[in-house]
TrEMBL record, chains A, B:
It comes from Marinobacter lipolyticus SM19. Its main location: membrane. PANTHER family: SULFATE TRANSPORTER (PTHR11814). GO terms for biological process: transmembrane transport. It comes from the Bacteria. Keywords: Membrane, Transmembrane, Transmembrane helix. The keyword Transmembrane applies. The chain crosses the membrane at residues 27-47, 54-82, 102-123, 135-159, 183-202, 223-247, 267-295, 345-367, 372-390, 402-429. It is found in: Membrane. GO terms for cellular component: membrane. This is Sulfate permease. It is a multi-pass membrane protein.
Length: 579, 579
């Protein structure tokens, strides 16, 4: 019982040993993550088309929920770039950005994602995330990065921008170029340059100046906060709002209200597909980050518990005014490197965000949106991995094709189509690969009990008895191929009286393959040929014995191929030479 | 060149050897199949909601097209029950049954199915039919049989009936029960009883009376023609039309016009999903029938050529006033048993149908629809295979679940949803099965070079070096499971310094699995553990060598597990005993 409770509430396993020095580590990490998270929360709300406070709300109670149920000590949960893009894409069809209906739909989306994740955790359906193959995820994230950067260019230029795919974005930017705001452009480009230089050179400069590497790294990560402070101060001092610079504007001070999201079944049904995709992508990314960090300390991540924890975090976000959340990569790395020891760091981060929300909102009103856009662009630039296309194509054309589809479709059509087609392609190409398994007619290596491919080795064969080895489990995708292969053999070997299937590589025979074997058995019988099996694996044999197939089989089931050869081969005289 | 032409036009390979006695055999078979096909063509047109002549038109030119391009000598093509049900379901959403728009949409559906099949043949996409696993096909055909029988009850009772699923059908029948026509009921039940008795007892009775078995069988198959002739005569003599019996009515005499179908892109787009499903189901059934019959004479069926032949047959149907066609099971068996030797039998059958259309349409006007309904019900009763559910569930729960879904969904919801969900379930359950491959920590059997599962054998292990064997190809569905498994091992073996993956059962490593191996390698490195591979198969090794993985690998690649053991195991002292 206690064990099951700990499994469900991992917090119980570490809270009893919690000590003062651990608290100090956690608190320090929390301060640094809070500094990093405030501008990110505002930026990703902007990206999702939501008011800035939604980003802050999504960085409070969800963090507490994850801390209680998650198995990673260092995963930092909150709004992330890709989920924000997917949120904007999903909500775009429902209401105009920024309206109360739009915000209400974001709450529904968060709750729904939470329910999907939670249900997957309870039902142990985490394997569904496997449908997202690495090339598909990687391609999708590259495409998202490009789309996100494109969507922020309008803010940098001080024009409206918009559009659901890259072509639309470019088209609108081009049309509106005449309306660009020079002051906004200066701030945007200035922030971009500053952040770029910090990322490229600051760390090395600080190390050269004598700072320890970890401190230099963390200072570099604080660059966005500096940009926010400086541009906010400029906007306030020079009253840039009056000069046409878009500012974040008034952010309501205070903590979020707790309330149930809309229960309109139409909205729920409309958002369900997007919620499933956001959940799966978020889960895959979170577990990957969590496992990478856990490995460094030989800690363990339980994917099923992660589903439950991320599910509860999203539900918490949905009832406390937030948007979908998941584990953020750079944020978690900072949390880890700043020394977070336990999920208490996450709870303290939530407290930090709450304090910021209560005290800083007056100042944030002067924050230029161009600054947030610059932080987003710099952050997502690391997501874009175009060389991966070449690498993947070189390794496997099928995987490369799936990746290309998942990159190109979102750019020209939209986010959800891309990932759906990518998943379908991955699965289809996998089934294709296994649908034509390697098979070989084998013969006996003279004087031995070994049987090898007649095309590659000098072996004895027998015109009465043909032995075929199939190098794959037999299941629906290759069952009919087996029928085709065997029936082609029959017409190619007019003197054949016995066909032996050597099954040493067959780990499974599903119901489709069983029916194919039954059909093959009947058809061979009609053609005057007996069907035999050899080297059937134990578990496969156990299942076959429960069916009438073993009785219907016209031939025998031999333990080894050699047994079959001894019993069946009448004139093993032919000696094949490989071509 | 000649070979390629024969491959595309199989008729060239046998026409040059065609002799007079073969023609006599083919002509005899054609007469018998024509007798069987006339009532079937009318009945399946009724089932599809189309005028009777559409069924006749679908049994002329398409047969000629198949005869020229098909590889089966005996497959009898034409309208079939399941495709007619799917046609009715697809067209129901477009126009009212029997209207010119409805007939026009049927032409589009046939053309579109033909294009789908033809394209699949050209692109060698026949493997797509593998997505329809045996349990799904079998379940779908059982559900179709039930739906078809249900849809014909109204004709037997002389009421309107209708409905898209079993619940609707029962509901409507119940409400309209008061309007039933007693004369129609007498004809319908009479025909049903006659056909049932013929099927059950006639063959045996004829054999007992001294007829040869084959002749008895063929006479039994002629029962529907007898029912048609007798009830038509009754309806004409007693003027049953005036008594409220629904008759087939005037059938236009003459051959079909050749004309292109509607090119309205909306209709094409709406019908595309149904066309794909009809094509796939028709193809799977046709090839299965063709292979069963071909095996009896050791002939060969080329699935890709069948796609092209069936595609051209359907396109021919679409431009000559017909509906979707495929190979019919009972009709092909009759063709085979009546002695058809070459596809000329099919061409002669088409001539027979043309003659019937030119001469018999005046008489067919008096044919009661109840008779056709009775022939349909008796014909589809053989499609319904409920015991298969139990058999499949007993063999494999996953396959059984997919089958149940494919049976229940069409009954309560509609035809297309059922097959789509069935396919998704088959694929999902297959990926689930392979997503958690069997893996084992292995140790050395003392004094040998053999390594076996530590849980099953007394073996030597080493606390520094853990050897894991994975019994499956590594691909996206199990890549993350591998990560989970390895990282769990790391936290369970605090003293581990080397991890060896023994890959003798790994036939493939796709791009996802490669990235997982790279991640595992990095994470183990972070944890101070070196990753080694052993027994990597040749083709897998060839691909790995083209990637940076081999250089990044912290450990070595050993030829055999024993090589790894010799190099790495420092204190192989522990002797495990199985639990």
């Amino acid at each position: 019982m206690a064990n099951r409770l700990i499994r469900f509430l991992p917090i119980l396993s570490w809270l009893k040993d919690y000590r003062g020095d651990t608290f100090v580590s956690d608190a320090l990490a929390a301060v640094i993550v809070t500094l990093m998270l405030v501008p990110q929360a505002l930026a990703y709300a902007l990206l999702a088309g939501l008011p800035p406070e939604v980003g802050l709300y999504a960085s409070m109670i969800p963090l507490v929920a994850y801390a209680m149920f998650g198995t990673s000590a260092t995963l930092a949960v909150g709004p992330v770039a890709v989920a924000s893009l997917m949120t904007a894409s999903a909500l775009g069809g429902i209401a105009d950005s920024g309206t109360p209906e739009y915000v209400g739909a974001a709450l529904v989306l968060a709750t729904l994602s939470g329910l999907v994740l939670f249900a997957m955790g309870l039902l142990r359906l985490g394997f569904l995330a496997n449908f997202l193959s690495h090339p598909v995820i990687s391609g999708f994230i590259t495409a998202s990065g490009i789309l996100i950067a494109g969507s922020q260019l309008g803010h940098i230029l001080g024009i409206q921008g918009g559009g659901h795919n890259l072509l639309e974005m470019i088209h609108r930017l081009w049309n509106q170029l005449g309306e660009l705001n020079p002051v906004t452009l200066q701030i945007g480009v200035g922030a971009l340059l500053f952040l770029y230089i910090c990322r490229k050179f600051l760390k090395r400069a600080l190390i050269a100046a004598g700072l320890p590497e970890r401190l230099a790294d963390l200072s570099t990560k604080a660059a966005p906060v500096t940009a926010v402070i400086v541009t906010t101060a400029l906007a306030w001092y020079f009253n840039l709002g009056a000069a046409g610079v878009n500012l974040v504007g008034e952010v309501p001070s205070g903590l979020p209200d707790i309330s149930l999201p809309s229960m309109d079944p139409d909205i729920w049904a409309t958002l369900a597909p997007a919620a499933i995709l956001i959940s799966l992508v978020g889960f895959v990314e979170s577990v990957s980050v969590a496992q990478t960090l856990a490995a460094k300390r030989r800690q363990r991540i339980e994917p099923d518990s992660e589903l439950i924890a991320l599910g509860l975090a999203n539900m918490a976000s949905g009832v406390s005014g937030g948007s979908p959340v998941s584990g953020g990569f750079s944020r978690s790395v900072v949390n880890f490197e700043a020394g977070a020891q336990t999920p208490i760091a996450g709870i303290l981060t939530a407290v930090g965000i709450a304090v910021a929300t209560l005290t800083l909102t007056g100042l944030l009103a002067f924050l230029p949106k161009a600054t947030l856009a610059a932080t987003i662009i710099i952050a997502v630039s690391t997501l874009i991995d175009l060389p991966a296309i070449g690498r993947t194509l070189a390794y496997s054309k099928a995987d490369g094709a799936a990746m290309l589809a998942t990159i190109i479709l979102p750019l020209v059509h939209g986010v959800e189509a891309g990932i759906t087609v990518g998943v379908a392609l991955s699965i289809g190409l996998h089934l294709y690969r296994t649908s034509r398994p390697h098979s070989a007619i084998v013969g006996r290596i003279p004087g031995t009990e070994h049987f090898r491919n007649v095309l590659r080795h000098k072996v004895e064969t027998d015109e009465n008895t043909v032995i075929v080895r199939v190098d794959e489990s037999l299941y629906f995708a290759n069952a009919r191929y087996l029928e085709d292969t065997v029936m082609a053999l029959v017409s190619d070997h007019p003197k054949m009286k016995n066909l032996v299937l050597a099954c040493q590589a067959t780990n499974d025979i599903d119901a489709s393959a069983l029916e194919s074997l039954e059909a093959i058995n009947r058809r061979l019988d009609d053609a005057g040929i007996r069907l035999h099996l050899a080297e059937v694996k134990g578990p496969v044999m156990d299942r076959l014995r429960r069916t009438p197939f073993c009785e219907e089989l016209t031939g025998q089931i031999f333990l080894s191929t050699y047994d079959a050869w001894k019993a069946l081969a009448k004139k093993p005289t032919t000696l094949c030479t490989p071509d």
